Amino acid sequence: MDHLTLQGMTNFLSTLACLICFVLHSQKEIIPIRIRFSDSSLVLNKVYSDSILGEIRITKLKMYLSDSNAKQNYLIDLEDSILPSFHAKANKLSLCFGTDSLLNVSGIHSGIYDPLYGMYWAWNSGFINFKLEGICSTCKGKNGKFEYHIGGYLSPHSTAQNFAFTILETTNYLDFDIKLLLEKYAINGLSSILTPGEDAVEFAQEVVAAFRIGNE
Amino acid sequence: MNRFFFILLGLAFCGMIGMRFSFRNSEVLPIIPKGWPKPIYSFKEMRLSAEKIDLGRHLFYDPILSRDSSISCSSCHLQYNGFTHVDHALSHGIDGQIGTRNSPVLINLAWMPNLHWDGGVNHIEVQPLNPITHPKEMDASLSEVLQKLNKNTTYKKKFKEAFGADKIETEQLMKALSQFLLTLISSNSKYDQVKRGDVGVYFTEQEKNGYNMFQKYCSNCHKEPLFTTNTFASNGISPQTENADFGRYLITNNPADKYAFKIPTLRNSQFSFPYMHDGRFDKLKEVISYYSDSSSVFRQTNGGSISMPLHLKETQKKDLLAFIFTLSDTTFLFSKSYGFPK
User: Fold this and answer.
1) B145 - beta bridge partners?
2) How far is CA B21 from CA A75, B48, B49, B160, B165, in A?
3) Interchain CB contact of A134 with B (< 8 Å)
4) ipTM value
């Protein structure tokens, strides 16, 4: 009888352990990023037609985005064919938009922080955390041009931001959709932001707000 | 056969040591003059080396850094003038284009927390990016400069010696230039010699009078021993009517910083004409007359001020000038260590 009880307990515990492992591992841990224009993948220099923005073409999109869980920093550049993936931990994606303030005051850096990538202001030392350029037919800028170089690390104009998402079983992507961002700015607001300041801080907040988790 | 094997082994071992030592830099620790504040940059942490400094000096004098290889750093920063540009109110760069400011002197940069007239550069390692890429200065792209350097066998060798790098990259280029800039220390003027108590060196009566006046009227901003506080001030000179330069405000967006510029050092100012951020004064006596006779408003952004005009007598102006001349350091202005590399 005792032997049977022990055997039964062992079987139960083994089954329970397997079930726990199954549940844990069935949550997605690696989430790739997608850059979108509404429901489509954003392709540089491709013309999109939009009811609000008219004919729109993005010529440049770069940003610094860090994976806080994996402690990995990325310079996302739409010119690159491969975009990074981000690590979820306990169902949470923890991200940081922009660059650390210490990086902005500690001289020259290499790798993704090399000024060669065009993401550094020489005249006002510091990184450009986000760069978006393009043309749209309904935009207020000269010749429909818009240019957003978003940087700044000194309080109260720091543009770096931490944000997070809780991921679901159905989460497959981290989406960044620029359509709403452009509708707000290129049509109704500033067609260019090229220096640190309040406008850049506000824009940075809108950049973060343009991220979503994709549950397809 | 065994002997031959051991000879080969010995040669290989020596070769390995040689390889290690070919990239062993000779550490350089510039002496901080006695009584001076600590530099912003720790020379030890910056790992100054003779090889990097020498490389930086070569680059400083080489127009290879400009788009058409016509302009070098020394085009606007001449050693004999305290490493500034003379005879031009506003410095000119590539294709004869005229810039918006007079090039500042390069003196005692190791003590400067911010560089440029508006303090827009917060670290010496990133300063060279500005003139190299500015469309009116050297107008070069970083990638093109690096391509040129990587094709140059002399520079490939020098970078290898200094950094152990097979490929020249942005970081090494900037560090080499900044290490040379950090060594530009001026601390052996007559004033310094008097302060040190060097034998046989004394102020004349006129210089002594000038020093007293300096301490009374000028030292708030041009604080000894650097002869600058390295902070920002507006001395009330009227902005230009066209394309007014807002100075520090362009960096901070703080209205209190409008028309404020970095207080320049007075060291070697006898030779660093013209004066002010826009070079509007050709002579030092014009500067003194401005403070003496102008009723402009002076505003120092870190507090403190002087009441203008100072109403100096002509003899007092001459005394003050005589004292300022004691800040000229010919050791610095003519040192072969800083000059065109032979």
Assistant:
1) none
2) 36, 17, 14, 12, 14
3) no
4) 0.88
Query: A111 to chain B: nearest residue by CA?
Result: B171
Lowest-confidence pick of A125-129, B11-15, B61-65, B287-291: B11-15
- b/e map of B179-200 (b: 16 or more CB within 10 Å)? bbbbbbbbbbbbbbbbbeeeee
pLDDT of residue B43: 85
Contact (Cβ atoms closer than 8 angstroms) between residue A99 and residue A113? yes
Give residue B20's pLDDT: 37
B83-92, B146-155, B198-207: range with lowest mean pLDDT: B83-92
- b/e B87-114 (16+ beta carbons within 10 angstroms → b): eebbbbbbeeeebebbbbbbbbbbbbeb
**How would DSSP label each residue in A156-175?**
TS---EEEEEE--TT--EEE
Q: Which of A23-37, A183-197, B205-219 has the lowest mean pLDDT?
A: A23-37
Please, which pLDDT band fits residue A187 given cuts at 50, 70 and 90? confident
Residue A82, pLDDT > 50, answer: yes
Nearest residue on chain A to B147, alpha-carbon basis: A116
Q: Two tokens at B193? A: 């010699």
Which among A114, A125, A195 has CB closest to B123? A125
CA–CA gap between residue A104 and residue A106 (Å, rounded): 6
pLDDT in tens, B287-303: 999 999 987 766 655 55
A116 vs B: CB within 8 A: yes
- Summarize the confidence of residues A161-185 as an average pLDDT: 91
Asked if the C-beta of B165 comes within 8 angstroms of chain A's C-beta atoms, the answer is no
Question: Nearest C-alpha of chain A: how many angstroms from B57?
Answer: 19
Whether the CB-CB separation of A28 and A172 falls below 8 Å is answered with yes
pLDDT reading at B19 higher than 50: no
Q: Model-level pTM?
A: 0.88
Strand ranges in A38-121 using DSSP code E only, listed in sequence order: 40-41, 47-50, 54-67, 72-77, 85-89, 92-97, 120-121
**Would the pLDDT of B151 be above 70?**
yes
Q: How far is CA B235 from CA B232, B248, B254, B264, in A?
A: 10, 13, 17, 12
- Subunit contact A105:B253, Cβ cutoff 8 A: no
Q: Is B125 on the interface with A (CB under 8 A)?
A: yes
- CB atoms under 10 Å from CB of B56, counted, come to 26
DSSP B194-248: HHHT-TT----HHHHHHHHHHHHHTTTTS-TTTTS-S-EEE--PPPPSSS---BT
Residues in Cβ contact with A158 at an 8 Å cutoff, skipping those fewer than 6 apart: A101, A152, A201
Any CB–CB contact under 8 A between A155 and chain B?
no
Backbone angles phi, psi at A152, to 5 degrees: 120, 130
